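In this supplementary section we document a worked example of the pipeline. Step one takes a protein sequence of length 363 as its only input; no multiple sequence alignment statistics are reported here. Step two produces a three-dimensional model, which step three serialises into structure tokens for compact storage. The input and output of this example are shown verbatim.
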Amino acid sequence: MVKIEPPGEGDPLRGWRRMRNGVSLWWQVQSRNKKSVTCDLRRPEGQEIVRRLARGSDIVIENFRPGALEKWNLGWDALSRENPKLILVRISGYGQSGPYRERPGFAAIAEAEAGLRYVTGFPDRPPVRPNLSIGDTLASLHGALGALLALHHLKNGGAGQVIDVALYESVFNCMESLLPEYDAQGYVRERTGSTLPGIAPSNLYPCKDGSYVLIAGNADSLYRRLMTAIGREDLRDDPALAKNEGRAAQMQRIDDAIAAWTSGLSLEEVLEAMRKAEVPAGKIYTAADIAADPHYAARGMIVQTVAGDGEPLRQPGIVPKLSATPGAIRAAAPKLGEHTDEVLGGLGYGAAQISELRKSGIV
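The serialised model returned by step three reads:
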């Protein structure tokens, strides 16, 4: 994958969050396996470089505000004219059409306007955000899904096409029954802290060592095993609690019983009891917990690498895991413009031309 970056400054992600040797640690993960080419898209010579790249590419991904590529003579019409099989993935805040199309959009705004922020947190406090840019990740996944569908269409004799991904739509697509519940019953889903009303029991429960355990015994058989494990046969055998509908109506009663049991045990004692009862349960992992977890290691999800700054760095492994063509970390995140000469040379630019483009500030 070739990543186009503005000369001199590069992608803003290079300077975000925690740094090491002047480079973001986030960048080291996000940009592995990519080649960095600097190119000024505002100038005709830079636009020509992109057109040459697009001629030989299967997929082009862009995340500018709608109309930016067209302003630079790099819109769908221009690129597909030279490569009819091209797939153009366009990621923006509000999509390529509609009354909001020209508004700037970030993941934080998308999460708010798609309803995610409103339902996140505790009911007596303002809405909160996950400590992640989850809207960006969801948009990327939807873009990848669209690109795969478009590749399948090509394989079956179709032409290239545009994949229009909006940040707010990608988040909204994950909001489950939020809209149908409102449309059918006027119900507005609210913040509920660590619980999920309507599904019981599934909650965080305190342990005697000050930690919390997550227990999800919300299937009928799981609920029975859970109640047996905590010594509450009365709740296990209560006909009113046999099905989720009845348990949902008495969530507090069930949660109080579970919390009373977990409060007398350490986290590890609770987890061991839940493992024996075959009830899903887990601790709330920190980064330190993940780094030390043997299952993460066994699944190849903690990979020791040498980062782009030349120092060792453990990174997340590649998912999903394919049996015949598994992914791998083949190259560290690139330095700014590290592959400009290599890529431009492959497009037919000579050394003298590349030197002139660099002197002119185009690459």
